[in-house]
C-alpha cells in the first residue's frame, strides 16, 4: 500500500537516538535545548519550548495567554480537533471562522465580518488560532490589521507548516503570531515520534509556557516567593502539566531538522509533479496564494461536479490499486463532541462543501518517482 504520509528515518536519525540512550539524561535535558535552538535557528524567533506533542504546545500556549473560562477562542473548522480542543481544555468557548474556498485557510472576509458583529455584541475572541492548512501560511498581513483593530492574540497552529514561508519570512519567525506551534508527529514535515514546539518572541510567554510544561514548578529564584531558598528547593507557582519532550526524541528531532531543506525540496518537487501531471483531469488542485511558500504537508485535491466519479468512488478506486489516500478534514464543528456544544450542519458551509469533495494524495519524502507515477496513472484510469 502507498500511504498518504509517512516518516523518513535514515541511519543518522537512528544513531542520534541510540547515542542518547547511553547518556546521562533520557528525559528533558541538554538535547532538548539543542533541538529548541536548532528550530529557532531555522525559524528566527527568540524563544522555543519543546513539548510532548503539538496538542500540549497548543494547550500551554492558550494557558500562557491567560485564556480561561468565559473567554472565547476562534479557529478554523478545517483542521485537526486539537486546534479547537486546546481552548476547551482551558474552559474557553470555541467558535469557528469558515474557510476560504481557494486556500482552505480561514477566510479573511468572513473573519472581518464576524469580528465586526462580535464587537457590536461585546463578545470578541481573546485569541484566533490560525491554522496553516496543508502547509500554506494564512494571510497574516490581513490578520495583523484585524488583530490591531480588535485586539485579539494570534496563536498559529503551524503543525503542517514547518519550513513554509510568508512573503519571504520563515513561519515561526515570531512576526506573524504571538505563538507559533509545530507538530513532530510522524506524518508531519519532520518527526520526533510524538512531539511539538511553541515559538515566540515574547520572553514572558516563553517563561509561562515553560512553567506549564513542567508541573508549574520552578527553581528560578526570580519566579519563587521572595525568601531565602535552600539549594534543594523548588516551588510550584501555577498548576502545570508534564508536557516535557525527552532527550531521546529531541535527538531524533535534531537529526530530522538537519534534513529539513532536503525534506522541503522533495515535497515541493512531488507537488510540482502532481500540479503538472494532473492538470488536465477534472480535479481542483491546491491553489497557492501570492507570497506563500507551502511546506506541502498535504496535497489535497477536490473532485469536481463535472467529474465522472465522486469522492468515494475515487477513494475506493485508489484503494483497489494499492494506494491509501486520506481525507483532511471532517469539519471540527461536525464532530459529535462539538455538535453537543450546539454546532450543526450548515454552520460553516464552505468547510462542509470542501469536506464533501476532498482527498489527500500520497505526499511524503520517501515517495519514489515510480510510486508517484502509480498514483498519477491510477487517477487517470479511474477518471477516464
Ligand atoms: C497534527 C496536528 C495537531 C496535533 O499534533 P500532535 O503533535 O499530534 O499533538 C494539531 N493541529 C494540526 C493542524 C495538526 O495537523
Structural key phrases:
single chain, 384 residues, alpha/beta, 3-stranded antiparallel β-sheet, binds pyridoxal-5'-phosphate
Description:
By secondary structure, the protein is an alpha/beta fold. The protein has 13 helices and 15 strands. The chain has a seven-stranded mixed sheet, sandwiched between helices. The chain has a three-stranded antiparallel sheet with strand order 7-6-13, with no helix packed on it. A three-stranded antiparallel sheet has the order 12-14-15. It starts with 10 loop residues before the first helix and ends with a helix. The model has no long low-confidence stretch (mean pLDDT 97). Bound molecules: pyridoxal-5'-phosphate. Residues 53-55, 79-80, 82-83, 131, 157, 159-160, 183, 185, 196 line the site of pyridoxal-5'-phosphate (PLP). Pyridoxal-5'-phosphate binds at residues 53-55, 79-80, 82-83, 131, 157, 159-160, 183, 185, 196.
